[in-house]
Write a structure and sequence with these properties.
Radius of gyration: 34 Å
Structural class: alpha+beta
Distance between the termini: 77 Å
Oligomer: single chain
Strand content: 15-25%
Number of domains: 4
Number of strands: 20
Length: 519
């Protein structure tokens, strides 16, 4: 834009330059005003032909004024008669500076960071000081609070002035000195930031310069076909359960529901013949192991993450020494992260591509009309001639009793038309009751599931309930009910998953429709 302005200034007469300056002044008013309000009385309706922008001119990257600048400037609409065109020399002088390099009125002074102490000791934090630098960093990089406490203890005058965050870089480990070097930390204030490199000290010192644990486990190039049809949340929970079954048993809610044991081995009642079960053998199939090193090392999954919206799984594995092998007793424990792609993901655009749906049987709807929460509603609507064929909202009228009944009667369908690995041969539901022998999918406490994937379904998940009455030719009354069941699809970061349902989530809407004829 500035090069274009110079070109125009060199070829336009003085009168046109004044007009151009006037137009430039009028465009500095606040962005939220309409164009008509920003025009001055002296602005002509059309610019002279020779002042039009050349067709091959570069696009103008408008530099929008900051909020505080806008507040300081007087409103252009209040000063229509006071606007003075800039002189050509003044205009030419301003355009000499690149637009992107113009000074910012809110620059933050980072001079107080030049004298800070960048060598910080973790000696008093036993959780980390007992670990070698690499092992400590795997946990420490997710523990900004501890770092902040140590930093502000050494730099009290900076407390609450900056927001701190670790940069995503690999630091340098000095095992002989017990030091983590090149830890980059971003200091942010008023959207401006500065990155400073720190040295963290007083971790466990080791004489080992090489650690073959790095070569013990590697990621595979492609996911085994046995697992491509499974959701990663199911796999994540089962991998952690298989490492320590007793500590995860407390997460289960009820007996007549799908729990960990139902998924540990191959289960023909829930899957097809290809499902191998998810147990301690599974990690050997998901990752590539060096079996020569398995004689001297042992491993266990200590944390997992999953994203059912993308079909990805991550596992954090602790690799330690086999105590019966004296040659490697000095090698430090290693914690490595592995990311596995290629699992099934939720389709938010086409619910028919997902395995989960729900049904309200005609017989159960009739029960609700004759004896349940819909009895009075149907009787009242039947008496009104103008209510037939009209979709009537019910949620606020009937209250919680209607949702209670719907939750009790809803059946769960798990239909796998893509991979065919999910294949239940039993009737599934949300709630087990004395009138049926169904198995609930909500096997975890808090109305949560593992199968077919991890989610939470409660009575409050039922929304937008509508009822429609229609007269049939034979004199019978057709009652149709429509509603939605909205459930969260989770994306969870690294944890032991013992507090399920706490990650980020995206809602998935399941639509349910049921009709019944009554006399």
């Amino acid at each position: 834009m500035k090069r274009t302005t110079k070109l125009l200034l060199s070829i336009l007469p003085i009168s046109s330059i004044s007009l151009l300056s006037l137009v430039s002044c009028s465009t500095t008013s606040s962005n939220n005003k309409k164009p008509e309000e920003n025009r001055t009385d002296k602005t002509p309706e059309k610019l002279p032909e020779n002042s039009k922008k050349p067709e091959n001119a570069e696009p103008n990257d408008q530099h929008e004024p900051s909020k505080s600048d806008s507040e300081k400037k007087p409103d252009a609409s209040d000063n229509k008669n006071n606007i003075k065109p800039k002189k050509p020399d003044s205009e030419r002088e301003n355009t000499d500076q690149p637009q992107a390099d113009q000074p910012n009125h809110h620059n933050v002074d980072f001079s107080d960071l030049e004298k800070i102490k960048t060598k910080l000791s973790y000696k008093s934090i036993k959780l980390y000081s007992d670990k070698d630098p690499r092992s400590a960093w795997f946990s420490l990089k997710n523990d900004l609070e501890t770092f902040s406490n140590i930093f502000y203890r050494e730099n009290k005058d900076l407390k609450n002035k900056y927001n701190l965050s670790f940069e995503n870089n690999e630091p340098i480990y000095d095992f002989l000195k017990g030091v983590i070097d090149n830890v980059k930390v971003k200091f942010t204030n008023n959207k401006h930031s500065k990155i400073i490199s720190f040295t963290l000290t007083d971790f466990k010192k080791t004489n080992t310069t090489t650690n073959n644990k790095e070569n013990y486990i590697k990621e595979k190039d492609e996911l085994d076909n046995k697992f491509k049809g499974l959701y990663p949340s199911l796999v994540a929970f089962m991998l952690l359960y298989s490492e320590d079954p007793q500590s995860y048993k407390s997460l289960e809610q009820r007996t007549q529901a799908i729990g960990f044991e139902d998924l540990y081995y191959s289960n023909r009642n829930l899957f097809n013949n290809e499902y191998p079960g998810i147990n301690q053998v599974t990690k050997k199939l998901l990752l590539e192991y060096n079996y020569d090193l398995s004689k001297i090392y042992k491993d266990r999954i200590i944390q997992a993450k999953f994203d059912d919206t993308k079909g990805t799984l991550g596992v954090k594995i602790e690799i330690s020494n086999n105590q019966t092998e004296p040659k490697i007793t000095k090698e430090p424990t290693l914690i490595k992260e592995f990311n596995i792609k290629g699992f099934r993901s939720i389709d938010f655009k086409d619910e028919n591509k997902n395995v989960l749906s729900m049904t309200l049987l005609q017989s159960n709807l009739k029960e609700m009309i004759k004896k349940g929460s819909l009895k009075k509603t149907v009787e009242l609507l039947r008496e009104r001639n103008n209510s037939f064929g009209v979709k009537m909202p019910l949620e606020q009228v009937e209250g919680t009793r209607l949702k209670d009944e719907l939750f009790k009667y809803l059946l769960v369908n798990v239909d796998d038309n893509s991979y065919h690995i999910y294949n239940p041969k039993q009737t599934l539901s949300l709630q087990k009751n004395s009138k049926n022998d169904n198995t609930s999918i909500l096997g975890l406490a808090g109305n949560m599931s593992i199968y077919p994937f991890h989610t939470r379904i409660t009575k409050e998940s039922i929304n937008k309930i509508f009822i429609t009455l229609a007269k049939e030719d034979d004199g019978k009354l057709k009652v149709t009910i429509d509603f939605e069941v909205i459930i969260p699809i989770y994306s969870v970061g690294y944890s032991d998953l013992k507090s399920p349902g706490t990650g980020a989530s995206i809602p998935l809407t399941l639509k349910v429709n049921s009709s019944a004829l009554i006399d």
